[in-house]
Task: structure prediction
Amino acid sequence: MTDTPSTSPTGRSFEELDALSTEELREQAFAVARKHRDVRFFWSVLRHLPNADEAEVLDGAPNSVGPTVDEAVALWREMTGHGYQESAPLLRAAFIDYLMKHPG
Result:
């Protein structure tokens, strides 16, 4: 019996994705979610950020949610001067799970 990386239906292994930085995972997951207009994914990510209460004021129009979320995340990171802090492990897991389940 050989150890082979677990490959998802999208052809990407957990090991391959786990080797990426959190920011690379975010960029790829956001690109896939924008392509599929997956608003639910964006909101699930925002709920895990430290300033999640402020996300309620974002425009939820399907054609603008991707750029709006990207801008909100970038603004939050710039204003706090931090990365994902204590949310990083949870967000990494969410990004990897999303990328393994959804084809690009």
